[in-house]
Amino acid sequence: MMNIMYVSVTERRREIGIRRALGAKPATILLQFLVEAVLITFCGGLIGIGVGFGISKLIGIFIELKPVMTAGIMLQSSIICIAVGIIFGIIPARRASRLDPIDGHLSLIV
Q: What range(s) does the ABC3 transporter permease C-terminal domain occupy (predicted)?
């Protein structure tokens, strides 16, 4: 996840620079990349839940096992996905918020 966000920050340097030059605050850019990281991990988590449940249903045909999907399981896995997005998205998001608007390099001024 972190690598994906680093690539996103690198490829969008120009956009970040333009936004900063037009007056966007570092906190706004940080929030943008954090929300993006959370959405990516949340959507991936939902896909994973669906695929996992589908595979367990398929296996349940051959084995006398009944897969169970409860709201608690969905909630816990969603919370874990969101936490992963925040944890592994914070460093690339901070890097994006510190980019210098003029030359697109990392700025030491915050």
A: 2-101
For residue 62, CA distances in Å to 22, 51, 104, 107 come to 61, 17, 57, 59
* Distance between CA atoms of residues 83 and 89, nearest Å: 10
Mean pLDDT of 32-37: 91
Tokens 């409860």 correspond to 70
Share the mean pLDDT of the chain. Answer: 86
Cα distances (Å, whole numbers) of residue 41 to 37, 63, 92: 6, 32, 15
Q: Is 106 helix (H, G, I), strand (E, B) or coil?
A: strand
Would the pLDDT of 80 be above 90? yes
Domain boundaries, the chain: 2-97
Residue 104 region by backbone torsions, left for phi larger than 0, else alpha for psi between -120 and 50, else beta? left
